[in-house]
Amino acid sequence: MLDDIRAILREHGRLAIDQLGNDTDLYLAGLTSHASVNVMLALESRFDIEFPDHMLRRSVFESISSMHAAIEEIKQSETTQVTVAS
Amino acid sequence: MIDLGRRIARDMAAPFADEVDAKARFPAEGLGALRKERLLGALVPTEVGGLGRSLDDVAALCDVLGQHCAATAMIFAMHQIQVACLVRHGMGTPALRDYLGDIAEQQLLIASVTSEVGVGGNTRTSVSALLRQGGRYSLTKDATTVSYGEYADDLLITTRRAPDAPPSDQVLVLARKGDFQLEKKGEWDTLGMRGTCSPAMYVTASGSEEQVLPVPFADISGQTMVPVSHILWSSLWLGIATNAVARAAAFTRTEARKKPGTMPPTAMRLAELSNTLQLLRASVHDVANEAGQLMSSGNTHALSSMSFALRMNNLKISSSQLALQIVQQALLICGIHGYKNNTPYSLGRHLRDACSAALMVGNDRIYNTNASLLLVVKDE
User: Fold this and answer.
1) Nearest 5°: CA angle at B167, between B161 and B169?
2) Considering the entire predicted model, what is its pTM?
């Protein structure tokens, strides 16, 4: 998943992502608010998820690690819902 | 405190409003009265000598001032926006905490330097950058507009964190009197808001590194500067609209008294107008209330969310549009008496001042930001 996130950041975040670590502050590296929306869209599309509104905050998209954690959290809660439904 | 505000607005701002507008001069009387009543320190916590009032209280003051002199209201609003940023993001730094005490004690007036040549209305981008050496910072900035810069004591300036920082990596910096120079680069001769004295300025500033706010400007902007700006501006625009309706109502009643028993044709229009004003007032109060509660409870989580940003942007856009619409409709009611200057029903200044609302910041820019946000915000 981390490689996919990096690829999305390279293409939609317009960042020289290879030089940045998993915990590097992406905003300090040049990620703009506008670009972060494109990144969010690309992540939703790639991982077939929707970010709930309470996760649409700067801190969630601040680093590769924080994005990874958020996506994992969403996928887990979706799994739980499916289990409950069946 | 609102009664105090009303008295200041009626006695010290209103009598000079037309002259402030005609001559595009600083509303010294209104600001003097606000200082005398310690209102420049309204948002400063009581623990450092301020009045410790809420955002709602200050919004109500902007409304009542806006009813009588929009220039006085706007200067007051712009100052309070800077104070809010210092209170909410600077109290942890001793130098800034002490400065807040100075604001309260000396009734210092702060001007904002966020605009810049080359970035349009995008306040989240800077060209200028901070230089640091030996515990001090220095910067230069080509600002397209600095409201009442010539009359301010101190400045809060946005700039890039460092010369190698990307354009959106910004900090907010305090520059105190004596530590900055302003080179006026033009005049302020505008359609409205003429008393705000906001010409372009070339700014040179320096100070102690402690005067650089420790929080990234991105966070200050989203959690404080933008919401407080939109709420206080909307409140003063509401004030302009309220006074316009008051004049239209007074005119309609004057007509009615001439022929008791008949309904003047303007009465129906006034009924429509009263309705629209109520809509604007409800919107401003509702959003101001929500933001005020989130701020006083320190809910950083909610304040930094995209859905909050969306709502704050919507307030600015709708208030700017409704306020102007209301003044235009009031003019239709007052007719020639509203169109002429120097009558009790004159609406020229109201109309011209209200025209500024959609332009500061340009509504299209804000709509674009909202369009972007709406691609991901579900507004649950």
Assistant:
1) 40
2) 0.94
B165 CB neighbours in chain A (<8 A) are 28
ipTM above 0.85, yes or no: no
CA distance B58 to B73: 10
> How close A59 gets to chain B, by Cα (Å)?
9
Best B168, B370, B380 residue to mutate vs chain A (most A CBs within 10 Å): B168
Asked if A54 lies within 8 A of B305 by C-beta distance, the reply is yes
Contacts of A33 in chain B (CB under 8 A): 124, 168, 218, 369, 372
The residues, any chain, with a CB within 8 Å of residue A69's CB and separated by 6 or more, are none
pLDDT tens for residues B245-257?
A: 999 999 999 999 9
Cβ B124–A33 below 8 Å, yes or no?
yes
Give φ, ψ of B209 to 5 degrees.
-60, -25
Strands (E), chain B: 110-113, 131-133, 136-143, 154-160, 170-175, 180-184, 201-208
Q: What is the pLDDT of residues B87-137, one digit of tens each?
A: 999 999 999 999 999 999 999 999 999 999 999 789 999 999 999 999 999
At A83, list the tokens. Answer: 């289990």
